[in-house]
Amino acid sequence: MTPDLMRAGAERMATARGRTGAVLQEGPDFRHGVALYVEDISVSFDGFKALNDLSLTIDVGELRCIIGPNGAGKTTMMDVITGKTRPDAGKVTFGSTIDLLQLKEPQIAQVGVGRKFQKPTVYEQLSVVENLELALKADRRVRAALFAKLTGAQRDRLDEVLALIHLKDQGTRTAGLLSHGQKQWLEIGMLLMQDPVLLLLDEPVAGMTDEETERTAELFLSLEGQHSLVVVEHDMHFVEQLTEGRKTVTVLHEGSVLAEGKLADVQADEKVIEVYLGR
Ligand SMILES: Nc1ncnc2c1ncn2[C@@H]1O[C@H](COP(=O)(O)OP(=O)(O)OP(=O)(O)O)[C@@H](O)[C@H]1O
Fold it and tell me: Where are the transmembrane segments (predicted)?
């Protein structure tokens, strides 16, 4: 890990401590450079193993793409990390100290894990800026002050996020009038307002135009290093853009890791070709 990332990890650790003071005694500890440990997770639905001894590790600031055929367990994995599904066995640890399996969904979000579902869910009647403001105030304690003025720092963050998500000129636009891709960016922006350590993104470019997909790749690459990103995606061109020929890709199959490595290597792997790419 670079000194910059170490510093970012330490800063996040302090932020997370502040955030979770009411929930947890200790904040997450990222000193090992690891954002998330998933260890030997198994999930069964009526005897069918959706996850089967799944293990993987995501580093602080890493951008990891997860690919795999339909039914491989990708969504179930995200459900376990975010507390929606309780596994039958295994461990999920945020940093090196926080046992996510002991936390409820809202606490997991509060500790710094953000999730983007496949469909955009923005407030269609509100403007772009109002959507971002709401995300900032999603914390129930400040919801009462919904229309209170933002602090200078919050205003700066909002402007920064607007630029990041390519909606700088669309701040006053009603969200319902945005294109599908712009709605997806807005929802990502809403997550960013809460400054998550780890972002889970489920098929973020499904339904996007080629240009929107390209700009989404640029967005994710600009977030890498500042956040850990786990991107589940079937669009191989997009995965290629994100991995830049050097990053690790994880291939899931039947609820466990079938292969892990550089995209070119997993694409050449006979097992992967047989179950996924060769179809
Ligand atoms: N609540 C549930 N009850 C029963 N079976 C389930 C449930 N959720 C998922 N499954 C099954 O578990 C397996 C893994 O599903 P999951 O949605 O995690 O796969 P996936 O890799 O996300 O697939 P896709 O690429 O199609 O989204 C599938 O066979 C699915 O039918």
Answer: none
Locate all alpha helices (DSSP H) within the chain, ordered by sequence.
Answer: 3-20, 74-81, 105-111, 128-136, 140-143, 152-164, 180-193, 210-223, 236-243, 263-267, 270-272
> Shortest CA distance to 132 belongs to which of 93, 179, 168, 108?
168
- Cα(167) to ligand 1 centroid in Å equals 34
Domain 3-118+198-277 annotated CATH 3.40.50.300:
yes
Hey, where are the domains in the chain? Answer: 3-118+198-277
Pocket flag, ligand 1, residue 80 (CB < 6 Å): no
152-164 vs 210-223: helix axis angle to the nearest 10? 140
d(CA 177, CA 114) in angstroms, rounded, equals 25
CA gap 119, 136 in Å, rounded? 20
Please state, as a whole number, how many other Cβ atoms lie within 10 Å of the Cβ of residue 121: 11
pTM: 0.89
Q: Is the beta carbon of 70 within 6 A of some atom in ligand 1?
A: yes
Residue 217 has a pLDDT of: 96
- ipTM metric: 0.95
